[in-house]
UniProtKB/TrEMBL annotation:
It holds the Pfam family Pyridoxal_deC. It catalyses: L-glutamate + H(+) = 4-aminobutanoate + CO2. InterPro entries: Glutamate_decarboxylase (IPR010107), PyrdxlP-dep_de-COase (IPR002129), PyrdxlP-dep_Trfase (IPR015424), PyrdxlP-dep_Trfase_major (IPR015421). Its cofactor is pyridoxal 5'-phosphate. This is glutamate decarboxylase. It comes from the Eukaryota. Its EC number is 4.1.1.15. Belongs to the group II decarboxylase family. It comes from Rehmannia glutinosa. Keywords: Calmodulin-binding, Lyase, Pyridoxal phosphate.
Length: 346
């Protein structure tokens, strides 16, 4: 069903192959491994060196690609893209794989492109299943080297296996199957359209505050990424931090290389993020902004009071809640900045 959704050639004598995984990360490890082994076999046959495989990715890839490169000893390369390459392509469709077929059926990103040999998708993102399911699909049997597939017969029949784990619960596979046949094309499309509309409600609410630049596009994965217009008094990390008090986890993070100076807040709209929730989030962001606006005054007042107390009583004065909060934010930002991987998507 998923190979069909991704327009794999499924005519007479043609068969896509695929495997259920724990998520897109495992699917990407397996697809990457298949690429590596296929390339090595080809180089061996040509009598050429095969000890330095590499893979070209965008600068904004999810961390699992760096994991794949390190675990499986493949060099991650940055090159200038140009036409005319005959290089196999893997599409990381972790989120988009269950969005594009329903919202943008004309968009040719999948097996309709001849160089696309494999695709991964997370069932637990827009596939609408609980966490723990992903899928890797290969265009044809030839794209998955046979030597990577193990055949066992001790469960009663020949069972081919190409996964990192052997045993795995079947509940998510059943749940995925249920969602696909219960919702069908129309059901998925309605849900994705609804997510898109709720993203637009959120975007409009944020624009209305007059305080943010919207940096995400209106099409694609339903999400809103935004940054402050004015950073002179506050930053996105403080907003993210204060929103936690209202129960929201809205991550603030820096953009990939060459745009690291841009920090964004990002809200990904899922099926269960209703219009009411979108409106409530805007209200809470508004409250946070008002609270932040009043901080300098309060801090100054408190500092004056604090130094007066210190002067007269030489006492050790406790930090204010706001000072503690600022210290936490500063420590957190330092921690994020010092980490090697500070950007990317998830
Ligand atoms: C583009 C992309 N690739 C890979 C992953 C990893 O997927 P998973 O969490 O399903 O392992 C994610 C998200 O988490 C992602 O957004």
């Amino acid at each position: 069903m998923i190979a069909h959704l991704f327009n794999a050639p499924l005519g007479d004598g043609e068969a896509a192959v695929g495997v259920g995984t724990v998520g897109s990360s495992e699917a990407i490890m397996l697809a990457g491994l298949a690429f590596k082994r296929k390339w090595q076999n080809k180089m061996k046959a040509l009598g050429k060196p095969y000890d330095k495989p590499n893979i070209v990715t965008g600068a904004n890839v999810q961390v699992c690609w760096e994991k794949f490169a390190r675990y499986f000893e493949v060099e991650l390369k940055e090159v200038k893209l140009r036409d005319g390459w005959d290089t196999p392509i893997h599409v990381d469709a972790a989120s988009g794989g269950f969005i594009a077929p329903f919202l943008y059926p004309e968009l040719e990103w999948d097996f309709r492109l001849p160089l696309v040999k494999s695709i991964n998708v997370s069932g637990h993102k827009y596939g609408l299943v609980y966490a723990g399911i992903g899928w890797a699909i290969w265009r044809s049997k030839e794209d998955l080297p046979e030597e990577l597939i193990f055949h066992i017969n001790y469960l009663g029949a020949d069972q081919p296996t190409f996964t990192l784990n052997f045993s795995k619960g079947s509940s998510q596979v059943i749940a995925q199957y249920y969602q696909l046949i219960r919702l069908g094309n129309e059901g998925y499309r309605n849900i994705m359209e609804n997510c898109q509309e709720n993203a637009m409600v959120l975007k409009a609410g944020l624009e209305k505050t007059g305080r943010f630049n919207i940096v995400s596009k209106d099409h694609g994965v339903p999400l809103v990424a935004f940054s402050l217009k004015d950073h002179s008094r506050h930053n996105e990390f403080e907003i993210s931090d204060m929103l936690r008090r209202f129960g929201w986890i809205v991550p603030a993070y820096t953009m990939p290389p060459d745009a690291q100076h841009v920090t964004v807040l990002r809200v990904v709209i899922r099926e269960d993020f209703s219009r009411t929730l979108a409106e409530r989030l805007v209200m809470d962001i508004d409250k946070v902004l008002h609270e932040l606006d009043s901080i300098p005054a309060r801090v100054t007042e408190k500092l004056i009071a604090t130094s007066a107390v210190e002067e007269h009583h030489h006492a050790i004065v406790k930090k204010t809640a706001i000072e503690v909060q600022r210290e936490i934010t500063a420590t957190w930002r330092k921690f994020v900045a010092e980490k090697k991987k500070t950007n990317g998507v998830c």
